[in-house]
Queue: 3 jobs
Job 1
Amino acid sequence: MELTDEHLDTLAGLAIEVPSWAYGNSGTRFKVFATPGVPRDPFEKIDDAACVHALTGLAPSVALHIPWDQVDDVDALTRHAAERGVRIGTINSNTFQDDIYKLGSLCHPDAGVRKAAVEHHLACIDVMTATGSSDLKIWLADGTNYPGQDDLRARQDRLTEGLATIYAALAPHQRLVLEYKFFEPAFYHTDVPDWGTSLTHCLALGERARVCLDTGHHAPGTNIEFIVMQLLRLGRLGSFDFNSRFYADDDLIVGAADPFQLFRILAEVVRGGGLEADSGVVFMLDQCHNIEGKIPGQIRSVLNVVEMLARVLCLDTAALAEAQRRGDVLGANQILMDAFYTDVRPRLAQWRTERGLPADPMAAFLASGYQERIERERVGGVQAGWGA
Amino acid sequence: MELTDEHLDTLAGLAIEVPSWAYGNSGTRFKVFATPGVPRDPFEKIDDAACVHALTGLAPSVALHIPWDQVDDVDALTRHAAERGVRIGTINSNTFQDDIYKLGSLCHPDAGVRKAAVEHHLACIDVMTATGSSDLKIWLADGTNYPGQDDLRARQDRLTEGLATIYAALAPHQRLVLEYKFFEPAFYHTDVPDWGTSLTHCLALGERARVCLDTGHHAPGTNIEFIVMQLLRLGRLGSFDFNSRFYADDDLIVGAADPFQLFRILAEVVRGGGLEADSGVVFMLDQCHNIEGKIPGQIRSVLNVVEMLARVLCLDTAALAEAQRRGDVLGANQILMDAFYTDVRPRLAQWRTERGLPADPMAAFLASGYQERIERERVGGVQAGWGA
Amino acid sequence: MELTDEHLDTLAGLAIEVPSWAYGNSGTRFKVFATPGVPRDPFEKIDDAACVHALTGLAPSVALHIPWDQVDDVDALTRHAAERGVRIGTINSNTFQDDIYKLGSLCHPDAGVRKAAVEHHLACIDVMTATGSSDLKIWLADGTNYPGQDDLRARQDRLTEGLATIYAALAPHQRLVLEYKFFEPAFYHTDVPDWGTSLTHCLALGERARVCLDTGHHAPGTNIEFIVMQLLRLGRLGSFDFNSRFYADDDLIVGAADPFQLFRILAEVVRGGGLEADSGVVFMLDQCHNIEGKIPGQIRSVLNVVEMLARVLCLDTAALAEAQRRGDVLGANQILMDAFYTDVRPRLAQWRTERGLPADPMAAFLASGYQERIERERVGGVQAGWGA
Amino acid sequence: MELTDEHLDTLAGLAIEVPSWAYGNSGTRFKVFATPGVPRDPFEKIDDAACVHALTGLAPSVALHIPWDQVDDVDALTRHAAERGVRIGTINSNTFQDDIYKLGSLCHPDAGVRKAAVEHHLACIDVMTATGSSDLKIWLADGTNYPGQDDLRARQDRLTEGLATIYAALAPHQRLVLEYKFFEPAFYHTDVPDWGTSLTHCLALGERARVCLDTGHHAPGTNIEFIVMQLLRLGRLGSFDFNSRFYADDDLIVGAADPFQLFRILAEVVRGGGLEADSGVVFMLDQCHNIEGKIPGQIRSVLNVVEMLARVLCLDTAALAEAQRRGDVLGANQILMDAFYTDVRPRLAQWRTERGLPADPMAAFLASGYQERIERERVGGVQAGWGA
């Protein structure tokens, strides 16, 4: 099947949330390489995010990370975003960089540290309220490095208590989204290591607690699309953190490592209603452009998602269902592969032109002079990174 | 700390369930090597299991696998077990060897196949009732080999429906235990691949549905003791299938591949109350003795569990809690390691003697002439294996 | 870039070797499902392989497995192949199904067993000479299941000795190809677990010893195209065993699990001269069609390889080299992805028509009545499988 | 078997090399937590290393990392070490933190960068000559993050050329030790990803090129002791970087994650002659004490190695060989496990006392006041870490 106008209408409704931190410097424990033109503050990050949206038309919101994106005047930042044509999205908390969090935050053995971690989240909710953001995303770096270091079960109980306090502070239109991660930075155990644990806590919290699925946070070989299916089926998929990986949490550009996996994930999203307006599923990027350009990295990511979604829409679902019904293993697989191998790029380029966007957003960016300008203008100050 | 009399009393209450099929032939897709003396029928399997219990005093029950252990007269088999000093334990269903199950059983696209699979489980419940068994264990080989082959979500819905029918047929004192498995024999997706999926179904079924944790059924690197902790915390750990692995579902002798992992798992069992009489946790072995002796393989397994549990009991939990409380990473870890490195073997040998058991059950078996006798007597007929 | 006539000339030279055993039954340790129409002897396997070649024009040779394909009259089998338009390719030895090989073959602690294993290989060389085959492929199931079971180093020394004897028996135009495998059927250690070990033995043997790379025989996450590159660079890549996997040695259809990985592998093949006439690289399939049709499974595999190779040929290598030279990370990656996403299928269909072949070999097979005929005719006898 | 006096004599010859950087701060990409008392310069690192040696008697040398340990007066540092009772060991190069190395060093597409990387190594050789160090250890962070980013094969050729230049500059008594790593910081491919690649380069270089095996640098499930065996067999094992891991390159304390794996590795060391005086195998630690104390972390590591080696020495090798010879799978395994489960700690404590060392080096350190003193004295300046 080919891309139809109806498919393109569906794609027009796609909103990919970009992370403010993707525009800052990032790296590995071995080295963070600095990049010319990198933003010095949240306002400049918003500018870069707005540039990506202007070129792709598909990235209307920007996730913030507190305290990396803490500003004195939140309203000014919110207005700045609006003026640039984007809005503030998910607010991400951070309880892994203050010295008190060395052995954990919400799961820490010390009640004082847990209290500080809860209060940080309450402050994040204030930012949500000020910015109009509806999602509080919690990724915890909590865990241990050595067996015996702490009591796994007591930590779960502490977590339950902390999350309940935070959840209770949300306004009725706000949600808590709990992310899980297989490992790193903790190397023996992670307090929310898998979707089962995240779901367990969400069920205990209430209806507005959802699971965040980061595509890089699983054990080797995990069938991620199965989890997508299951969470959609249970009505508990809150958001994606899209990226890709060959090994661990590599945070590479989404679709770069295993494009067919991205196809299968998006096929389950469509199958499970995740694209529908009321699904409540947020499509966020969470990546590190360690060695490639930050803005180009984000443009590429947005394009990868929309192109792959277009391939999914080309799937002949009626023929597929029929092949599945009759147990035609190879026939059904072939129908799926036919969609994957469809070259949707020319039609999408044309569609962009029809929408007043550049046919080739990457070429348009490179020709725009934007990068040269920020490298020229953003001199002095401290480049944004994970530490600030 | 050393093993105390109180610890030994705790160990005396340990009951390890052995699987009938461990005494039959098993192998890989490449070859099943036959072993002299292997049982030809369920009665002879019971004999071998009784031999293991007689030597160790810790293996009082035998799990059956239907139809491998189907007999004309179930009562006779039950009596045979009682006469040999053991009893029938968990009943395991099998919906992966009939030709109709090529594309699944409870999740199959065809309603007729699903019906047959449900009926097989109802027949298993009849066996439970006849034998006095309280647990129906369901491990499904259901899954697909190729993306698109079937609809992942529809299969979950079919599974929900089939399990509900089976669960409804249980007597009030009977339980359904749902096992999960990462992969194999299906190579793209498995319908119950992880504890989260198993738990989800158990929650939907009711209080008497529990999760079975097979220690070989996880992705590489999975922290299994965390799952043990979580399921105990949620009151949903139904049983263990103990074995060990270096790579996939290798089904080696429990404790053979990574003894420290077994220690950590058992430490969470004790921590979470899994040893207590009312915990409802069944300790079962599920192994394949492909190249080693079957009965010695089971003796070794039983000994490995009890020895490791003894090491866990040596743990100075008060000192550990105190070290954890003060955030003493290395101190806490050292307390755990000290228990692991304690040599409990001499005291356990003495304890066995005190209980009227051989100090060295393996040596006693080798000296007993049992193996020579069954090799001599079990001539003719068809050796038991996975196919019969 | 698009597929050019020159590219198509290159593709016309492609020769994919099919394995005789792909047409027989296969399965897992849990169950081998029988398929109607499966060959009863090597002659019928050749018939099916010839059918695949007739429809695709790209599968002119058939690998045999001894003793599965042992026949009284090898010359008759060779002639039968020629009459059907194919020829006998690689001869694969088998030292894992005789009872004496329970603890190994060339690495076995017992000299008598090692001698038998060597002699089996000498018999295989006789078959090679009779069939005109130039490659002896050795995959050893040798290994151990438990630490301490045998002496890892002594086994290497025994292996060295056995291989040397076999190598010495080869005619000057014959080669020894040594396959490695990460695990299975041995679950603690494998005697040739990785390409480094295989290479080490090949270097010790001589120029006509090469490494066989089975794409399913690596640890999770292994960068297989790197190994392809390295072996081509060292002049020691002897052959591929193509298949695909999500977890372990799943033996799924090549290109089914991670198409982009197949693309990268083939890109390194082209880059390293592996397509050139004198490269000595054999492209073999080694798969198990457990639940899908055997002949369709082979047709799909052949098509997947040629389609992916066509995408590789679309790569703009000049532009890629230039982007790499200037350190343009995303630009270089994009050039690669552009080739991967090129839809080569229509041009290949046309090309097949130009060559007098069906545009759609799969549809042609389904319409041919071949399957119905063999299901009708192949009644009685014993279906071929791994055991015979 | 028990530890004999002969065994203790063997252990007395053990020399574990500690890394200077273990005493500085380290962490993950998320956070480097600072620790009070951490050294500000290489002299203070030597002091801490000397403390570990004074307490254990088994850590007589310190590996340096250039430029982290670059000092104006190398002779002064060498004398400082001698005065503290230790000596300078392996010199580790570093080509991953200068901005020019963003896309590689010895494998970089730009000849100028490659030249700089070679020159850095020549400067390291100068340090070796000045300090009397005999080993230049090269771990390259070189690799790529995205397929197509660079030419895998051209990078190998550049690597070959660079290594040859460096090797040629070594004095006749100096060695080049080439480390391999599965992934990180590069996330698509690593230029020296496995032992096969490292060995290939060593063979091309000459007799004094050896492989460095870091126990954390392998794919999940890799049988590391097999590689140890193979490299010893080939005479190419140059050194260990000991640490342990649950997931990736976690750099935890050696023996902490899987003690039985450490046992098996050391058993192959002993089996292969790696403990003998002329083996040329260097036993180095390479760890990150991110959340635990640095000096206690090193003490624990040294003790773990010696304790595990003591268990290995308890192995009844004659009985093992006999059990292996007769194919007694479980018997042989049991002999191995018996050694592993032997409690060697009391005898080792006594042995330390006999040698004039504290029976419990960890308790002695904690009681010594050393930590309190350095926390008091090391105020001001910049704490050492990976960046300086």
Note: Chain D has a mean pLDDT of 97.
Job 2
Amino acid sequence: MASPVLPSSGALSPLGLDSVRLTPGFWGDRVALNREVIIAHCQEWMERAGWIGNFRRLGGDPARRDPVLRQGREFSDSEIYKLLEGMAWAGHPALPELAATVARAQEEDGYLNTRWYGDRYTDFEWGHELYCYGHLIQAGVARLRTHGEDELTGVVRRAADHICRRFMDTSETCGHPVVEMALVELYRATGAERYLEMARRFVERRGLPALDDIEFGRAYFQDDLPVRRARVFRGHAVRAVYLASGAVDVAVETGDAELLSAIEAQWERTVARRVHLTGGMGSRHSDEAFGDDFELPPDRAYSETCAGIGSIMLAHRLLLATGDVRYADLAERTMFNVLATSPALEGRSFFYANPLHVRVPAAPPEGMNPAAEGGLRSPWFTVSCCPNNIARTYASLAAYVATSDASGVQIHHHTPAEIHHEGLVLRVETGYPWSGEVTVRVVRGGSGRISLRVPPWASGARISHGGTTRPVPAGYAVAEGRWRPGDEIRLHLPMTPRWTYPDRRVDAVRGCAAVERGPLVYCAESVKDEPPLALVEARVSPPVEHLVDGVVELDVEAVLVSPGADAWPYASSPRTGGPARAEDAATPPAPPAPGNADTPGPAGKADTPEPAGKAGTPEEPVPVPSGEPLRLVPYHRWGNQGPATMRVWLPTAG
Amino acid sequence: MASPVLPSSGALSPLGLDSVRLTPGFWGDRVALNREVIIAHCQEWMERAGWIGNFRRLGGDPARRDPVLRQGREFSDSEIYKLLEGMAWAGHPALPELAATVARAQEEDGYLNTRWYGDRYTDFEWGHELYCYGHLIQAGVARLRTHGEDELTGVVRRAADHICRRFMDTSETCGHPVVEMALVELYRATGAERYLEMARRFVERRGLPALDDIEFGRAYFQDDLPVRRARVFRGHAVRAVYLASGAVDVAVETGDAELLSAIEAQWERTVARRVHLTGGMGSRHSDEAFGDDFELPPDRAYSETCAGIGSIMLAHRLLLATGDVRYADLAERTMFNVLATSPALEGRSFFYANPLHVRVPAAPPEGMNPAAEGGLRSPWFTVSCCPNNIARTYASLAAYVATSDASGVQIHHHTPAEIHHEGLVLRVETGYPWSGEVTVRVVRGGSGRISLRVPPWASGARISHGGTTRPVPAGYAVAEGRWRPGDEIRLHLPMTPRWTYPDRRVDAVRGCAAVERGPLVYCAESVKDEPPLALVEARVSPPVEHLVDGVVELDVEAVLVSPGADAWPYASSPRTGGPARAEDAATPPAPPAPGNADTPGPAGKADTPEPAGKAGTPEEPVPVPSGEPLRLVPYHRWGNQGPATMRVWLPTAG
């Protein structure tokens, strides 16, 4: 079956790309954009950057192995492999030629890496050789399941056998997990048990420890503790969720219930304390890592696109293993607010980090962005893991939508699609997430239970079929019956916009609230920062919906407050909120100490506003009347109108 | 005169170590600790780390120049030079031998660097060669002014002349400023104008640009704009304030009023938007840099010790140039809350970063800390700029206390000291900062105005002398007269504790307030996080003073609130504040969406608290009655009682 994850056991079985076809709609449109634009964009940039050329240079002729000529970071091979995986799922015609380029660089014994030939396996902390193999193997699995054996799958089998020979009886592992889940899937695809055993050993070795210490500490690559002894995800976020995904795969195939429940507990604790409202993971730029519990800054949120993708991969595995709807709930949150956010609407630029607050309207550097940051999306990055990860994930997205078990079919993600299962053919019709009406129309009849996920926010949901309507709680709405062509199941999910408040321990957004509607997180976007978002305070009143070009935007009531004009941003009395008025600029702001507003020193500057010309945020109150509507847009759509400021968490007035 | 900064012109002239002697008191005790403990601690660690050995290995014998044997980072030479400067100011007996070790490694043409011999000047972005010379020259200037010519000053002159020959007519500069201010000071100490001209050219070259672009962008080393065109400090904080210090020195010696006012404007804007309450600078760990305006997170505050020291050096230069008291005000804030915070009370461990909020009680890694972080102070760091910077700054601290001009003497920092100026001898007696009473006793008579700084927070200050008492505003309290032995000037600075609130644009501490008393910022420190600071809310009522072993501690009223037990830290209603009660744990917390607290999904977990054993912060309300006093300690004293949590900014109740 054409699915990236095919466990041999578990509560639910995935329905693959051959059973689920996405039709035009929120996700179907993005999958089409991926096939038509994003995949080609990625290939073009990797040709331009010379990362594909690295393979050509190695092809056959050892004399051409010149490290000076090699382009890109030590892990750039993995980017080509991720694109190959995307091409495989998409049935893209460019795959065979790109695969042949890769194949010619493989050494006789199966070793394949354009960076480390000669001094292979000399740096497990940063070398990324097994990481690159992991992505190569995932590409091969995709090819096996969509096409069958060919040159690419031969390369993959030789590489995987090389890994088993080289590492089966050592204590070594890679600084960046991914080979674990890749090897389990290759086992699932080929039945060769050595791949499962190799994956199991890689999972068990980590944390003994297996790697040297580094500046960030061993927690950076989850080598601080054996995976089954950890209590929370920590360190580099992508590494953490990739490792957890591999551990779930190993647990499922080996029947290791202890390992599975360890990962479930880590997921539960992480979701309770270390996840942004968008589902994004990662709070620190310095090591692309989870922060401490409740360290969730909106402005410096890292929330790497790849961490979001890894979280979706992990949640999908846990859903299949347990059938617990909470995993599908987090997957949906992350799909709509991270996965859909990274690519620009035109598919040619991407967010690497996905912060929830941007203070300065800025364009990223021209061309290849050397950093993960930049106020807007970039066409490519020096470390460009995210665009290719989007490409392979969108290309396989249909496989995440629905599952089956002995009782019937479960639809976890509501988007227009055609679903085939044991003769039953269903057509899902919906304007979700803009509309909460989901219709499942029976095209070819059959029997079995049809379950539709009801998200936790959908209070008052109803299901109608066979002439009856009943309320359904969050979880799954179940329709039983013998289905005839033309039968309809209608799910109604109330989409009332809602204000959401942070746990008081999330210090970074104290005194703020955010607006959500359905699965979407909303944000205020201010092009060129007009009005200045630093001075906006929202009133918590019911948001007003506006349908703009098929997109639901929301107005909330907001006041623009006076910035004051301190020379020192700390004062002996809190600012009174309230609207900006011309007088406000003239009245001296609170002094930095009681009664000294008129004295020299920083305090003395208090009544001397800086020249407006010098200001990064305006020093004069902006003439916007109080109680004006503030337009909120879906977070995933921000940043498509040029440099802008943005904030998800809005300070609340009064 | 024995002072690190001796401008040839300016509003005020420094009084050096030969004119100001610190006696037992807040700063005098620390200067003694430095002389007796810190300097030796630094030398021991640099011997143990092999950084001093790098010079021995080079000494004389080129055959021993083995890069493999070299220890430490590429800039480790500068650490030995900073220690030499500290030894020079302190008149430390270990200087000659250490200087001889350095001298033997110098090449014939004056080049001196243990890392780059062979491939000298091949990496200006990261090589730090001119940075190392800068610290070497500062050590030589200290030796010239405290001792006179010797082997060390000869080394310095040869190195400085080498720099002038090599760089006078190129467009090159160093990725890390410091050589600029060093060369100006060497000009001031020797009168050789080539050093001033070389410094001027280094200042003017930067930002043309003079360096290659890097991942962090050229703003990281202030090469994005010519220094006189910049509007705010940005990029790496230490680099920014070192460059600004050199620019002020060049401006003063060349009479460049435009350059001086450019730095003043940058300082003013930075202080208004980019400085932590402690005076600390730097908001980002990834590039040790300033953040955007108002990006001032207390938990991830970087506030590097060296940036605080650089800010004091810059403020001192601006004070001497302009006589504007606001520079002395910020210097004092930074001295008491950054400079005094870094070293442990026993002087054998140091903070590198000085965050304002620590959530997890933790000890740093054993031995040499590879990171700048760690919940407590570390004895040494892989990058160990801070301890040696403390050593040289404490050793010269007396030179920052007082100045003179034609009218008389200005005392900027109140600490027990004996001050000599043109025959006049003054003894300053005070328990400051614990007490606000400062007595200046005339030991040897003379004439002239005696000015005492009155900080901006000192509302209601009074000065008494000659039998009269009068109120004085912030700025300088001036006493005129012909002084006879036994005369007294008494300054009274009210030390009432005060609550301080952030500008509303400082998002990270919205809804919080901090307590200050006199020049000291206070914090709540909770050893082993008992009580849990994440659950404390303070009531804004007058703090109650307690004198504990000579230290003023403060009690504020606080309530301990219930953590609730969400599976998802975002909910459809704000938490009501109020005290923790046993019931609170049992009642289900707010659901993540209206009315779904009892449904599956993350929401479904809401009424299932995690086992307390798993909790990083307690899940059960802690049995502390409401309105209990919460003890606050001076921020500079936190972290001396083992692993603890700490917060300067306290959420306010109700």
Note: Chain B has three domains: 13-400, 402-432+436-492, 498-561+622-651.
Job 3
Amino acid sequence: MAEYSSILLEKAVDELAKLPGIGRKTALRLALHLLGEEKTTTEMLTQALSNMRKNIVLCRHCYNISDSDICSICSNPKRDNGLLCVVADMRDVMAIERTSSFNGVYHVLGGVIDPINGVSPNDLKIKELVERSIREEFREIILALPATIEGDTTNYYIFKMLKHFKGDITVIAKGISVGDALEFADEVTLGRSITNRVPFN
Amino acid sequence: MAEYSSILLEKAVDELAKLPGIGRKTALRLALHLLGEEKTTTEMLTQALSNMRKNIVLCRHCYNISDSDICSICSNPKRDNGLLCVVADMRDVMAIERTSSFNGVYHVLGGVIDPINGVSPNDLKIKELVERSIREEFREIILALPATIEGDTTNYYIFKMLKHFKGDITVIAKGISVGDALEFADEVTLGRSITNRVPFN
């Protein structure tokens, strides 16, 4: 006999439990929840997931996820096309958009250089970034990669690849978080905060 | 602009966030995980959920969830058809099956009497239980409902409805958990444990 006396339920639990952070107990709870709801609830969920996975593409321009060939940021005439922000992941685009403090356009690399996990520069959209830096007219390219060794390596690699670029190349500031007490900040971050101090005005 | 620059993603997050215990942040993480995996991963998940919701039915006999008209427990010739266990929910069937200490058949009420939340005896499979108790030949009917006021009320109601029943009507034992220290058991449970003491043999 199957674990749950229903092979259909068992299969649904198996698939749900493959999702990150969802164990078999949670998966069972979700499946039983769907069984207790109207059939349309499950239909709407599966439709939305199928549609998303089938129809979402990468923007041909910036490689952010998009519903169409060119994403809503690249096609927005109000965005500043002279200011480019390079990020590792589409999650980072969302995070920066939520701050409302950036009005330029993006370039999503799809990761950072990470030899230990087999990610080489060729696996990332770095070639495409170099091409954009030649083809388009950017005033400034902001590197907004993770503050990790891999992020720093990628920053350095990109910096070398953009030798021809005449505009500014900047990186986002590292320092203590807003609202943080100094005593709880780690030494490296606090050190960077002091080194990269800015004029008080 | 949509919250996530993709309406397809937004819809998927909306639907995932309707699941119990899944907030919008977790929903986004799950959706992005699916986007990062092969398309077949999403297909297998949505197929399994659709199949489950469309094809799972209630067993015509005991009202447990089932892949077919009669569930795998009711149709199993090795189960003891003279011993019936009445439970509130299909989850309880799973819990009892996991103990491997019951070899009879079940009757799933679909809940307990709960006037505050609008659950009356007519909303439960109590009439069907009474019919089974007349039609089938049970030696014993075990009431295994939750140890709550609602569970006790339902026990009492069923007991009255089964007046004609000639066999034994029993309830599962309440007492301290196996492995529990007496000092940490609540008073009511410990009190029941003493009242319902059994011969040491």
Note: The CA atoms of residues 130 and 161 of chain B lie 7 Å apart.
